[in-house]
């Protein structure tokens, strides 16, 4: 077996809305060996991973997978289940997987399954392969535990910490966009101008000065004292020589802690005398060498409480308990601590609900009580091995939120406000927070600017408090306040024009629109990236841009299959059409497969959003069953049954009725504009652009643009190189008409020739290539279409051959053209794109039409620039007039006329 390709689909994808690993697996000889034909395989596998017996598989009940193994199933399917189970046994909550057999490539399987963190997710699959290969090779001893342990370690090493994870999950539950940025605990919540962020539990709304003050314990104490809040007496020291004076001034027992310490690091409590204080100082300075200033504070007896304040409200309160072990009369304190650190709830740093107990600190704390790690405590004795109750030093917590007296709530809220923190953890020592606060009976030890919320999420006793949700609700009270509107455009053809036109229609003062399409990324009129930008990476550039108010995102097949979507929800989803294109790639082998890919956009439309579907495309119409959005159909035919049904039911529809575009909604019908008045329709000739216009109008109308506003806007969008670059751009030079378009598949080529059939010309000369990742039949069909409509055919080649050998795609085009009407003399092969354009130009005569089907539009612009430089002034027109209704296309005065060719074009 071998893995050909791996993809991490982090966003909603063809297989799931959750992160999914996609693997192209080649079984090799095992294609002929299902599990029932491998003696002893099933029994051995189940002995290594017994919990596979619980898998339901397609049977729908526990043990269903075992039945499949007995009946005979293939290794791709088996590895899928094993990868899921190894992750699950490692503590990773995953459950969905699916394996699909390639219909055209024997032995190839497409394996998909859930993952939460990609390093552990793919490691689980490699582990599954090792176990299977070990069984097949007859290894005697195969243990799954090391694989499970390593998978778990990778997961905890790379996942978000508990606090950040709870914020992330709370955002998802509220349909608030959330994204981890980098490998640390930084989250971006929301999109565009509405976005905010958190780092651990510090928000983008947290005052920097407040954080600095909270991190400076002396400043914190000064501010709290100024507000007449209770704080312990203490002094700051910088050298060990100051310890004696500090201890005597404050009075024993005392606490030592770094002035700028965090998470309880370097804190030692209940020091009874100078000897203990000096030993604690030595420990802290050795273990935490970065600290140079310390506070020596009076130690106050009482219970240690943490109160979480968010936006001036008490969200959670915990009674914190120092780490303790219970003697059994056999084990030493060291052994008891080591055993407790094996508790699966304990981990390094903040990876798990509780942290491991640091042995060195325990030794220091025990020493001041004249106890040793090597002593054996009697059975039943409970020993607190560390004085402070911070979770980061092994402490635990009991939830007491509902028991806190309002006076203590007020005390905690006032402390957070005094420091200036929107999110704060207030540490209070009190004998009892359930009774009214009395002066002198409690002190505020610390105000934390980045409070950990593990203790509230995973209390040792009591109710779990969703502190992450409280933080998210503070940042975004509603989903609408978190996300800018998103228009997602997909389909086989017309995506770029529809996206550009939609953005144009939605423009208004004081609103910045982010636009992605196959030619770049734009923020209003500023291009911030070039190239094919129709994938999730480009979408994220718009969604993360802090000035964008609305996003229009072309969403192509390739990006969906490569990474999934960059967004979980959209407000408007458009599907222009679905035709055979790119089949045979990444497991998409049929038209129905492709429809499922494009259907993802309707599936992610928000309830209350709008799903815009092409009523002339049966595949699009079928997508209506998969969306929660309001469906708006568009059509080139007023008598389309789907349109007529929508009108009868009072729903919104946009359609062409003879020479007019029409909008119907709620029983009313508006004649929008004559089609010939809309420049993008090329005087009504370009049927494909009429459809694109209908889709864009429906989108803009659904987002609040009035019919009047749309009429004014659409007539200012032109099919030129500025507004619709590379899409049916027309230039006239020396009596020749040059049209450049990105018709990259048979459906696109057919639409272009349908438009050209309305125009007069002497001859039609086409310069075109075929993308190498198309099936042979699709390339042959393009060759056939070009040959049947063209007088001359100049065949070029794309820069990226996409897996084809040089000349391979060109030869397929040539052979097809020869079979469909062109002879050897009418076909020219010039592989370089720009050279091909010049060769085609040399073949033209006045009155000819030259169609440039481009791969790289830069080459078109360079070609046009070069030939324009050779022309006399006045011989170049880039904004031609189109014929009026019932007239043939006529060139400007002094230019040759265009007449039908022998093929009737």
TrEMBL record:
Every copy of the ATP-grasp domain together lies at: 221-476
Q: Which UniProt keywords apply?
A: ATP-binding, Ligase, Nucleotide-binding
Question: What InterPro entries has UniProt attached to this entry?
Answer: ATP-grasp, ATP-grasp_RimK-type, Cya_phycin_syn, Cyanophycin_syn_N, Mur-like_cat_sf, Mur_ligase_C, Mur_ligase_C_dom_sf, Mur_ligase_cen
Catalytic activity, EC: 6.3.2.29, 6.3.2.30
Residue spans with biased composition (Polar residues)? 894-905
Q: Which GO terms describe its molecular function?
A: ATP binding; cyanophycin synthetase activity (L-arginine-adding); cyanophycin synthetase activity (L-aspartate-adding); metal ion binding
UniProt catalytic activity: [L-4-(L-arginin-2-N-yl)aspartate](n)-L-aspartate + L-arginine + ATP = [L-4-(L-arginin-2-N-yl)aspartate](n+1) + ADP + phosphate + H(+); [L-4-(L-arginin-2-N-yl)aspartate](n) + L-aspartate + ATP = [L-4-(L-arginin-2-N-yl)aspartate](n)-L-aspartate + ADP + phosphate + H(+)
The pathway to which it is assigned is: Cell wall biogenesis; peptidoglycan biosynthesis
* Ribosomal protein recorded as keyword: no
- What SUPFAM superfamilies would the database entry show? Glutathione synthetase ATP-binding domain-like (SSF56059), MurD-like peptide ligases, catalytic domain (SSF53623), MurD-like peptide ligases, peptide-binding domain (SSF53244)
Q: Which PANTHER family match?
A: CYANOPHYCIN SYNTHETASE, MUR LIGASE FAMILY MEMBER
Role of this protein: Catalyzes the ATP-dependent polymerization of arginine and aspartate to multi-L-arginyl-poly-L-aspartic acid (cyanophycin; a water-insoluble reserve polymer).
Family as reported in the entry's similarity comment: In the C-terminal section; belongs to the MurCDEF family.
Subunit text: Homodimer.
Give the protein name, as stated in the record.
Answer: Cyanophycin synthetase
């Amino acid at each position: 077996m071998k893995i050909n390709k791996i993809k991490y689909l982090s966003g909603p994808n063809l297989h799931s809305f959750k992160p999914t690993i996609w693997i192209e697996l080649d079984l090799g000889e095992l294609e002929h060996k299902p599990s029932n034909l491998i003696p002893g395989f099933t029994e051995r596998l189940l002995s290594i991973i017994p919990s596979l017996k619980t898998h339901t598989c397609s049977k729908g009940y526990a043990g269903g997978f075992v039945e499949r193994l007995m009946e005979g199933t293939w290794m791709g399917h088996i590895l899928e289940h094993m990868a899921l189970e190894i992750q699950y046994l490692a503590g990773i909550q995953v459950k969905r997987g699916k394996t699909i057999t390639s219909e055209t490539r024997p032995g190839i399987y497409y394996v998909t399954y859930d993952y939460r963190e990609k390093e552990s997710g793919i490691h689980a699959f490699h582990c599954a392969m090792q176990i299977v290969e070990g069984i097949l090779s007859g290894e005697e001893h195969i243990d799954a535990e090391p694989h499970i342990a390593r998978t778990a370690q990778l997961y905890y090493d790379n996942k978000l910490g508990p606090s950040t994870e709870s914020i992330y999950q709370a955002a998802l539950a509220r349909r608030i966009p959330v994204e981890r940025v980098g490998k640390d605990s930084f989250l971006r919540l929301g999109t565009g101008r509405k976005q905010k962020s958190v780092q651990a539990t510090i928000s983008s709304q947290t005052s920097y000065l407040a954080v600095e003050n909270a991190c400076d314990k002396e400043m914190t104490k000064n501010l709290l004292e100024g507000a007449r809040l209770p704080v312990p007496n203490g002094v700051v020291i910088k050298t060990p020589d100051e310890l004696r004076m500090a201890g005597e001034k404050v009075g024993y027992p005392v606490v030592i802690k770094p002035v700028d310490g965090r998470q309880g690091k370097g804190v030692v409590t209940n020091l009874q005398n100078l000897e203990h204080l000096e030993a604690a100082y030595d420990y802290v300075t050795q273990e935490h060498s970065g600290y140079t200033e310390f506070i020596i504070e009076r130690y106050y007896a009482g219970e240690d409480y943490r109160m979480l304040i968010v936006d001036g409200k008490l969200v959670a309160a915990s009674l914190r308990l120092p780490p303790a072990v219970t003697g059994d009369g056999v084990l030493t304190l060291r052994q008891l601590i080591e055993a407790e650190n094996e508790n699966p709830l304990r981990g390094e740093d903040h990876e798990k609900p509780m942290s491991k107990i640091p042995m060195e600190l325990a030794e220091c704390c025990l020493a001041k009580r004249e106890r040793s790690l090597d002593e054996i405590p009697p059975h039943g004795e409970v020993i607190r091995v560390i004085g402070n109750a911070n979770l980061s030093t092994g402490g635990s917590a009991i939830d007491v939120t509902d028991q806190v007296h309002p006076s203590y709530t007020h005390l905690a809220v006032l402390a957070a406000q005094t420091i200036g923190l929107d999110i704060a953890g207030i540490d209070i020592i009190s004998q009892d927070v359930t009774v009214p606060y009395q002066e002198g009976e409690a002190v505020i030890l610390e105000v934390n600017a980045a409070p950990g919320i593990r203790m509230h999420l995973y209390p040792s006793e009591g109710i779990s408090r969703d502190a992450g949700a409280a933080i998210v609700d503070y940042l975004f009270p509603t989903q609408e306040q978190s996300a800018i509107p998103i228009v997602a455009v997909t389909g086989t053809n017309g995506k770029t024009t529809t996206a550009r036109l939609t953005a144009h229609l939605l423009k208004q003062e004081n609103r910045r629109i982010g636009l992605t399409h196959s030619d770049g990324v734009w923020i209003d009129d500023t291009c911030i990236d070039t190239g094919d930008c129709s994938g999730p990476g480009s979408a994220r550039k718009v969604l993360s841009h802090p000035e964008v108010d609305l996003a229009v995102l072309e969403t192509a097949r390739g990006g969906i299959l490569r990474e999934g979507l960059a967004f979980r929800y959209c407000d408007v989803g458009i599907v222009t059409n679905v035709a055979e294109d790119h089949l045979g790639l990444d497991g998409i082998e049929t038209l129905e497969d492709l429809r499922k890919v494009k259907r993802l956009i309707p599936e992610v439309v928000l309830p209350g959003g709008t799903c815009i579907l092409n009523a002339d495309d049966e595949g699009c119409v079928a997508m209506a069953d998969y969306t929660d959005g309001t469906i708006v159909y568009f059509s080139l035919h007023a008598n389309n049954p789907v349109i007529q049904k929508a009108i009868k039911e009072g729903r919104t529809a946009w359609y062409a009725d003879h020479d007019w575009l029409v909008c119907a909604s709620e029983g009313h019908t508006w004649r929008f504009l004559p089609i010939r008045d809309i420049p993008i329709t090329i005087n009504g000739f370009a049927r494909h652009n009429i459809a694109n216009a209908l889709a864009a109008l429906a989108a803009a109308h659904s987002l609040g643009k009035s019919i009047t506003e749309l009429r004014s806007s659409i007539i200012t969008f032109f099919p030129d190189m500025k507004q619709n670059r590379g899409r049916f751009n027309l230039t006239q030079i020396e009596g020749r008409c040059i049209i450049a378009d990105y018709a990259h598949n048979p459906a696109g080529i057919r639409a272009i020739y349908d438009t050209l059939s309305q125009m007069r010309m002497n001859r039609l000369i086409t310069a075109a290539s075929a993308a190498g990742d198309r099936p042979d039949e699709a390339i042959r069909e393009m060759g056939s279409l070009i040959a049947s409509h063209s007088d001359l055919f100049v065949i070029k080649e794309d820069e990226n051959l996409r897996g084809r050998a040089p000349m391979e795609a060109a030869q397929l085009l040539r052979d097809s053209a020869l079979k469909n009407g062109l002879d050897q003399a009418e076909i020219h092969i010039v592989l370089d794109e720009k050279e091909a354009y010049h060769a085609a130009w040399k073949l033209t005569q006045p009155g000819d039409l030259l169609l440039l089907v481009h791969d790289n539009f830069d080459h078109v612009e360079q070609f046009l620039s070069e030939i324009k430089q050779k022309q006399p002034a006045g011989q170049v027109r880039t904004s031609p007039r189109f014929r009026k209704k019932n007239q043939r296309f006529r060139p400007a005065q002094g230019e040759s006329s265009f007449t039908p060719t022998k093929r009737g074009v």
